[in-house]
Amino acid sequence: MRIEAYTQVQQLYQSQKVNRSQKTSAAAQTDRVQISSFGKDIQVAKAAVAGSPDIREELTAPIKARIQNGTYEVSNQSFADKLLSKYEEMR
Fold it and tell me: pLDDT at residue 21 above 70?
């Protein structure tokens, strides 16, 4: 087994690694990012969603009050019908 040949091959690969790293550092200086108008619209939409509350209090407050008062009632038949219809949709 010739060790000299292995050393020469290893030196060859090391010199190529140095050349690649030099090329990438020059390219990194010229990189630019452009955001399309669609991307900007998405950013605006995300900001609007982040600014809105998670729970719509104007809808949930009356239901919470009725539950606390003990006046909130759910029809068993209505609940069962909705449950079965959702099950059928999922199938």
Answer: no
